[in-house]
Amino acid sequence: MASLLAPTPTSLQQNLACPWFASRKPTTSLLSSPPITHSSKCPGRCTAVFNELSPGFISEALHLDELVTLFPVLRSGLSQFQRVTSVLPEVERWEIVVFVGLSWIYLTARPGVLMGAIDAYLLAPLQKGLDSLAGRRSLKRTDFVLGNRLGEGSFGVVYAGAIVPKNVTVDERIGRTGRRLETDERFKEKVILKKVKVGIDGAEECGEFEEWFNYRLSRAAPETCAEFLGSFVADKTLSQFTKGGKWLVWKFEGDQNLADYMKDRDFPLNLESVMFGKVLKGVDSLERNALIVKQIMRQIITSLKKIHDTGIVHRDVKPANLVVTRRGQIKLIDFGAATDLRIGKNYVPNRTLLDPDYCPPELYVLPEETPSPPPAPIAALFSPILWQLNCPDLFDMYSVGITFLQMAVPSLRSTAGLKNFNSELKAAGYDLNKWRENTRTRPDLRLLDLDSGRGWDLATKLISERGFRRRGRLSAAAALRHPYFLLGADQAAAVLSKLSFSRQ
Ligand SMILES: Nc1ncnc2c1ncn2[C@@H]1O[C@H](COP(=O)(O)OP(=O)(O)OP(=O)(O)O)[C@@H](O)[C@H]1O
């Protein structure tokens, strides 16, 4: 940056005018070449400028040159900036550079005020416009048929369903029984529909939030969650539809969630073929289990890192909210309890809506005394400070820790086993090592003790009380750097299996 200010105001224009400079291909790396003395190549006035500059600057200038050529606004802005700063004394020029640098760091620090503003004021309206053009925002009741009921939360009821193809006309009552829908050849595009409960306090608001978070994530981290197709309001009361009731629609991502897989005695081996194909054949069974669990953990934490980077905390991470796709991807669902702490979306102080089995001891994502958020732009401006002070993302990381233990320790997979573990853990002051010493159960911890206990060490660093300055638990980024993930045998196996799939 300093070197950018160093040349004379006209140097950039000279560079642009220079036929030698202009003829350099963008792929040519000037950085890797020795210092440039191209006076022999370009006989123009610009020679002096180039000779004075480091190759680093020239490389920067080359990229800048391409950029400013492409964007006239940037070009005029930059030359104006250079004109203004050139009349300033050196010290003031440095002050400006430092101010711009610090502002940049602040605005790009987690949760990303700058990206958030770009998303809110540019990408969101753009997505809305494009979706409207493509007809994605004009879903209607008759576009879908309903199948089985899959689940019911406090605010919504979830159904399997399918998109009605354009050339098919359906009896409006079709799909009332799941069997007909599943066997009906006409309905190939499966979906998941969530009916927002009508007349339940807070349900409508929860539905609005869930829709907002799904649109937000479809822009910011689409690979982490189920593909959101949109929403519609029922136009009449018929079977499960109530006139005026809202429905949210997702692409059907997979038959089972992680909790379903964990109910099976064979877990985690029942996920082997979907995650690794036949690549682990011949590997010892404990090692195999360990690799499957590690791959699941890697995927969950990688997704959470992306979500946390956007300022969103899920607040309800648990096996039932992790869908396993046919290609072995783990996708997060159910953002009804999520909160966006960049702008304070769905953050109500003192409100806890969570599953107690996976909820960290602090219960709240921010300290209870944190006030209600101010208007979004102001909240956004202060969000990096809030994030630095409170590390709200560590809330989800505790739930990941519990999910990890459940996957690794068979006796913790049942509801009763988990409840007993949680009460013992509470008695041990949320210190996993103390729990291990004192537990009256005899848990099988072999999977965690492999590789000198790396898994166990990771678990102890996820399942813990918040320490000094609300830290002390690993963030998603720090967890991915933990030695547990260092040897990427699970990754290698996953890649190999994808390669063998694509060859078939
Ligand atoms: N996109 C999807 N693809 C496949 N299955 C899904 C999808 N979305 C949801 N499901 C299935 O539906 C179940 C219920 O979904 P979800 O958790 O969103 O509903 P909910 O009403 O909030 O339930 P709860 O509050 O009990 O978690 C999930 O556990 C999952 O098995």
Blueprint (SSEs and pairs):
Blueprint: H1 2-5, H2 11-17, H3 19-23, H4 47-52, H5 55-70, H6 72-86, H7 90-108, H8 113-134, E1 144-152, E2 156-163, H9 178-183, E3 190-196, H10 203-220, E4 228-233, E5 246-251, E6 256-257, H11 258-263, H12 272-276, H13 285-309, E7 312-313, E8 322-324, E9 330-332, E10 339-340, H14 376-390, H15 394-408, H16 415-427, H17 432-438, H18 446-462, H19 476-480, H20 483-486, H21 489-503
Antiparallel strand pairs: 1-2, 2-3, 3-5, 4-5, 6-8, 7-10, 8-9
Helix pairs in contact: 5-6, 8-10, 13-15, 13-18, 13-21, 15-18
Bound molecules: adenosine-5'-triphosphate.
Helix content: 40-55%
Helix count? Answer: 21
**How much strand content do the residues show?**
5-15%
Look at the structure and give the mean pLDDT. 80
Low-pLDDT runs: 1-15, 25-41, 45-64
Structural class: alpha+beta
Spatial gap, N to C terminus: 51 Å
Q: Could you tell me which ligands this complex binds, including any ions or cofactors? A: adenosine-5'-triphosphate
Strand order of the largest sheet: 1-2-3-5-4
Beta-strand segment tally: 10
Largest sheet: 5 strands, antiparallel
Q: Nearest-angstrom radius of gyration?
A: 28 Å
Describe the global form.
globular
